[in-house]
Each structure stands twice: as C-alpha cells, then as structure tokens.
Amino acid sequence: MSSTISPTSRPLDTAERSRFRRLMQAYPFRDGGFERWIGARLAVVGAGMLGARLCEEAVLAGANVIVFDPDVGELANLGNQTCRPGRFKVDVVKQRCDAIRPGHLTAIPCDVRHANLRWLRGCTVWFDCTDDPNLAWPLTELSNGFDRVMFRCAVDGSGQTEIGRVLCSAGGSGHACQCCSYDPQDLFRSHRRTPCPGQSGPESPPTLAGGALAAGTAGLALSLAQRTIVGKDTDRILGHEFILDWTGFQMLHLRLPRAEGCLTGHRQWETMDLDVDDASGTLSEVFAAAEHAIGGSEIELETYLHPWNVQASCQCGAVACAVGTDWAVPPRCPKCSNRMQWLKEIQVAKATREQAASWGILANSLETLGVPRGAMFVARAGGHAARRLLLRWPKEGSQAQEGRRT
Ligand SMILES: [Zn+2]
Ligand SMILES: [Zn+2]
Q: Minimum-distance ligand to the CA of 150?
C-alpha cells in the first residue's frame, strides 16, 4: 500500500479534542484513526447534488477540502441542490462550510482541468462527483500519475430508478483504475457534457434524481474515503464498485479487476519543479528551464491538458492565425473587430522552441497564453525519457485570486 493513501497523523489541539470526542469513538475513527483523518486533504470535483453534500459532511467531520466547479447555480437546480441562482456553486458551498467550521474549505470556481495541479496532488483522496465522461480520462490519468485514490460517485439521473454508485480506484497502487474497463472507442466517443470555455455547447441532459439518493451516495463515498484514509477495510474498498440500489433495497459490492493492458498504462509520474514564475513567466523561460532540467536543447514541450490552438475564426467568415490554449482570450477579428473563436479542429499538442518562435509566442506570458498556475509540461528530447515539470507553487495567500484566474 502506498504511503500516499494514509496521511501522517497530526495531534489534535484541545478545542478539537472536545469537539470531536464522540466522533473519535465512531467506527471509522476509533483506535487512533481520527488523527490521520484530520490530517487529510480531500479534493472534490463538482459542487452539485453529490459534491456539495459531500463537502459539508467532510468539513463537519474535521476534514480539509478543496472543491472545483465552474458552474453557476440555476433555478432548476433548487429542488435537489443547495446552490443559488447566478452564484458559483462552490461559493455557496464555501459559505455553508464556513458556517460549520470556518476556513476548512477552499472554493475554486474553475474547470478542474485548468486548475493548479499542485492542489490536486496535495490532496490525499479525490472525489469525482461530476459523472462527466470528459473528465473521467484526465482525472484517472492524473490520479494514477500522482498515485492518489479516487472515488467516482454518480446517481442514475434517468428518473427511472433510485440507484447510486461509488467506484473506488487506485491505479497507481496496484488496484483497478477508473478506466480499466475502457476500450479505445470510449476515448473517441463524443461526450455531451462540459463544453469548452467560452462555448455554451450542446445542453447536457438534466439529472433527474432526488436529493435523498444523492445524500446517501455522497455519504457512502465519504464513509469509504474515511476508512481508506485511516487504513480500515482498504482491500475491500479499493478496486471495488459499490452500487446503492434503493429501488430494490440492496447494496452490491463488486470487485473491479485491474486490467494489465489498461489504456492508461497505470503510469505513475515523477515530477520536477519548474522554477518559472507562473504569473509573470514566459514560454521562453519554460523552454530554458526545461532544457536545463532535461540536459538537452532539442526538446519538445507539451502543455498537459492544454493543447495549442493555432487559428481563430469569426462569424463574419474571417480566419486569423493566433496561438493560445482554450483558456486564452481569442484575438479580435481583423475585419469586423468582433471577438473571434478558437478553431478547435486544429490543435497542436506539443511544440519545439523553433515552432513556438515561428508562432511568435516565446516572449508571451503564460497567463496570456492560457496556461494555468501549477500547470504541467511534459518535456521530451531524443534519447531522454520524458520529464514532467510542474510550475512552481504560487506565493502564500494567493489561492483565492488564483482560482478566479481563468
Ligand atoms: Zn486501469
Ligand atoms: Zn469578423
């Protein structure tokens, strides 16, 4: 078992001892488990009907949580979510959690694929509460790469049954990952959720499920995570799927075989810190630091999860050459001055210094190019193994603003 699953214990102060005295005697936490649990950080992706409930219960029970979700609440959510129309869902979750235990939840109103990867890496276990097929692959690859346990929670949103499920994976630690059952077609199938930034995209189907089922499923996921963190029952949790069949009044516990030929390769990553300021640094500085780290000059750099757009188009029919990730602001149209849209049919995953120079972006700041703080670059050079380089941690106290830089 990897040591990353069980965080180090931390002693409780007097106030915590009185507050959690009873909880410390509950099944998951008795025999010293609570000291490990309270030292854990949880990453929750999605602040909807599952994620918001999970966050509140986790903070109530003593955990520290980071929650990611770019969504804003709508009137139609109010039957099964505690959000507010027109406000970021994570901000409402933060307000509620601060009322329980102030300062134990960090709200990031941003797509997790554009969030600071150091934050995800700094969390002991992750919850994917989105049921978004477009996030399944990147989150699984990341959780394998950083060797983190991930719980994927979902409810049947068809309105036909009351069924929830929690899939518990740890691909970096010898168990099944979330994608062990995938075949290549699963990767290329067109998924309907999560439009890219700035695009409304096709509407995702609404989730037709009640909050009671969501509360049960979120509670199950949290309970499984608590036991995993304190080291109880882990062999019956990791690499298993739990199905909460409330229509048929039963819970199923299924083992998920680890596929040795899994498409993710179950690769664990070694990362190096890239000492480039992620606020003001330029792409040229990233190339220089990467060349230094890898010991070569003919390197190709891939900005992980952030391929380069190289053209933009306008509704008036004009097309212009410009370079930036999906999160960069596209240029204005040279003909009609309206804001253009990135032409996503043509994206380039990696570039050499010469290519970047020919695009004229070497001196551009990472921020204007749409590269997030804590981004990962994969550097490859002939004859060298690929190195993964993480932009350095932002300064203390810059967290709140950082989440809002999109
Ligand atoms: Zn796998
Ligand atoms: Zn135009």
A: 1
Residues 150 and 280 placed together within one structural domain of the fold: no
Calculate how far, in angstroms, residue 148's C-alpha sits from the geometric centre of ligand 1.
Answer: 13
Closest ligand to Cα 177: 1
- Relative to the alpha carbon of 339, which ligand is closest? 2
Ligand nearest the Cα of residue 318 is 2
CA–CA distance, 17 with 250 (Å, rounded to integer): 37
Cα gap 270→143, rounded to integer Å: 13
Here the tokens at position 334 are 């040279």
At 268 the three-state DSSP class reads coil
> Which residue type, as a one-letter code, is found at position 322?
A
Residue 332 Cα to ligand 2 midpoint, Å, equals 8
- Tell whether 19 and 138 lie within a shared domain: yes
Residue at token pair 């214990």: 9
Tell me how far the alpha carbon of residue 172 lies from the centroid of ligand 1, in angstroms.
Answer: 9
pTM of the model: 0.90
DSSP line for 85-136 = BTSBHHHHHHHHHHHHSTTSEEEE-S-GGGS-HHHHHT-SEEEE-S--HHHH
The domain that holds 354 is classified in CATH as 3.10.290.20
Domain tally, the chain: 2
Per the structure, the complete domain to which residue 376 belongs is given by 271-307+349-403
Domain match, 231 and 371 both: no
Ligand nearest to the CA of 181: 1
Q: Does residue 214 belong to any structural domain of this protein?
A: yes
Q: How far is the CA of 344 from the centre of ligand 1 (A)?
A: 29
Q: What is the pLDDT of residue 403?
A: 46
Beta bridge partners of 151: 127, 168
Report CA(342)–ligand 2 centroid distance (Å): 13
319 Cα: distance to centroid of ligand 2 (angstroms): 8
Sign of CA pseudo-dihedral 6, 127, 55, 50: negative
Residues of the chain with pLDDT under 50: 1-3, 200-201, 395-406
- Are 69 and 181 members of one domain? yes
pLDDT tens, residue by residue, 298-354: 899 999 999 999 999 999 999 999 999 999 999 999 999 999 999 999 999 999 999
3-state SS assignment for residue 391: strand
Please say whether the beta carbons of 286 and 366 come within 8 A: yes
| 380 strand-pairing partners | 300
Co-location of 359 and 237 in the same domain: no
